[in-house]
Amino acid sequence: MKKPKSQPLFDTKDFPICVARHGCIEGLGFEMDDLKQKPIIGIVNSPTDINPGHMHLKNIAEKVREGVFMGGGVPMEFSVPAPCDVLTEGNSGMRFILAQRDLIADMVETHCRSMQYDALVMIASCDKIVPGMVMAAARLDLPAIFVTGGPSAFNIRFNPKQKEIKSISNLDYDDAPGKAATITVATCGSCEVMGTANTMQSVVEALGLTVPGSSSVPAFHSKKLMFARTAGKRIVAMVEEGLTIRKLVNMKSLENALMVELAMGGSTNAALHIPAIAHNLGIDFPLSKFNDFSKKIPTLCKLMPNGPHGMIDFYMAGGVPAVVKVLSDDIHLDAKTAIGMSWADLIPFVAVKDPGVIPDRKNPYYPEGGTVVLYGNLAPEGAVVKQSAVARDMLEFTARARVFESEDACLEAIREKSIHENEILIIRNEGPKGGPGMPETLAATMGLSALGLKKAALITDGRFSGGTEGPCIGHVAPEAYDGGPIALVKDGDEITIDIPGRNIELHVSDDEMKKRKAAWKPFRRELPEGFIQRYVKYVGSASKGAILS
Which of 443, 392, 396 has the alpha carbon at shortest distance from 424? Predict the structure, then answer.
């Protein structure tokens, strides 16, 4: 069998040092003849006891190992961290979450280059781990297949009212226990909403990097283990075929992933991760593509936070293949998947099982794609908003600015209830460098919701949770740290948000902005020693995926 990368481990050309290397390999307890003849498959796992999305991944890895053995390969497992975004909300830990995406990518890349695996099976569920692993695989250009951990079930699923109301959205429950149950994770797996975790799991399937139909299988379902075993068997065949990631993923695949993300009403964080994956493939994927495709791809699904449905509903309705089938007039059907079949080959075997969850194109939840980019003098490089989660009467909004130098300062005003209707809150110094790490400002969006404000918006150079709703505009670039226009906004400045027009405008003259820039003094946080200081030095703009240069 082919061993394109690991063969040098078993060569004797470098005698006598090969004797020491072979002696070390003997200590693994494998038959040396097996290792000499069979491909070595790296299983990149991310189990952890502190993240519900990853607490079950050891079991999945065991099934992958079984599949690798069945396929004729030798599995070798290693792990990377699996941070949980939710656990860092409201504390300093959030500043280290996005940074770990690139750290995970570096860890996987450097370990694989040193250990010379022939191929990779990647196992992950949550926000930054999924794209981090794919970024590494893109650099390595090995045969690679992804096994997603799958979504959890929220506790509301086990509440009798849910059968009656048929919703997992907190908006549809008026009692405190019911509302709490809509955000309480009841099983292993990623949070059941169409947040960043489930967005990125769906994206890797749309990219062609999973066994089709597998990404939305619930974490606790027996089919998840069956798909894991299938992926283990398949990766050995991919080595034989020489089917590396760059032969699978190209511009067509990336556009497919974008179209699926838009149709599902996926997380705005996809605007960071899809361009970052593309960059690691050597492909330029400008942020403007979100606008190009949002005009023709509707938001099909009413997945929380867009509506009442959850990921279990999505799975039962047919998952990503069903979305691809509905979008078949736009999808690049010749794009291949990890099992060697194109989407054109697969579509005849796909059915939409619940049109109430994955409707026909003629009956979408929203006529355009969910994630769009606004440009203007406040965000020359772009700003991102999930338009499908914005009330229709707030798609166009003009109001005066209320400026906060940090999310903490804004939260203090929210607690004091000094935020009012017809204000646009500016939270700055929360970008990739200024945050640092571009922390989610979920606490601020939840605070606005708790105050019951209907005519207030939020603009930040930070980012949002995939579950954020309302007129919340993030990823403003250039960020305040770099002296972008958001750094120069003052209390009382008038701002217009025009989502249909893809525009965000600060009504301040160019001459006044030049005066403010000349007097501007940068806001800098004191940073702990270590990795985060290096991160600030090398991280780039959110408009380019916040990648390390």
Answer: 396
